[in-house]
Amino acid sequence: MSENLPRVETVVDDLYSLPPADFVSHRAAYVARFKKAGNKADATRIGALRKPTVVAWLVNTLARQDESALAELFDLGEQLERAQQRGDGPRLRELSTARSTSIRALTDRAVSLGRDLGATVGDNAAREIANTLNAAMADADIRDRVRAGRTVVAETYSGFGPALLSLVPDPPDDDDDPASPEIEDDRQKADEAERNRLLAELDSAESDLDAARTEADEARAETERTASELRSAAAEVERIEAELESAKAAAQAAREANEASVVQAESTAEAVGAARARVAEAQSAIEQPT
Q1: Residues 80-106: b if buried by 16+ CB within 10 A, e if exposed
Q2: Element (H or E) spanning 160, and its range?
Q3: Is the pLDDT of residue 264 over 50?
Q4: Among 110, 118, 127, 211, which residue carries the largest CB count within 10 Å?
Q5: In Å, what is the CA distance from 132 to each residue of 59, 66, 203, 274?
């Protein structure tokens, strides 16, 4: 009877809800389970899933714990886009303030969830969480990953594409030079993008290494299993051959015993015949008159 496997989507959700430290071992267990059941296609799909960074896991945890708050943030993003399309400056400033407030609150919530789960969450991680949430407001693909709780790395919005929400500035302080924050913000975005690109490459390499190790472990296990079966088969062959030799010896002994029995029977028959002849001879002699 075949095993009742979970749906692949259920497996994906389960894996991306786990802390990164548990991801690889659970992924390997699912791969082995699906392969054992003969479902190699889904096993390959599961094996290709990338391990999330700590920041991505925190965003995924937030998505599962505060789905409604994220929905409100994304609704705010839609309002920002409409205000931007209308060129409604006052509304943009109002919504930008609301966006900043919402992202700060959600970032604090994600940090708190992480610490409750035993994770060490520093300032850099908090900034990357905020960047990911901001990027999700501007990019539909990122938003879908965040909403589904399947973020793999910290995200940033490059500024290309139909949505330009990440370019909507937060309201400047009255005593600041309006040009300087924009230049500094662009520089920070470029630095964040490069750092996240490098982190993504590192994570991809680590995931590939984890997958290779998993494949190697499975290959070793398969080799050991096959070798064990071969040893068992060889032992069974030796046992059968020994039984066959014993049976041949027993058959030969039986044939020899039968041949000896035949010879003995023939000899006995001859002796009986001779004895009968002597008896007849003696009777004949007795019956003759003297």
Answers
A1: bbebbeeeeeeebbebbeebeebbeeb
A2: none
A3: yes
A4: 110
A5: 8, 16, 16, 118
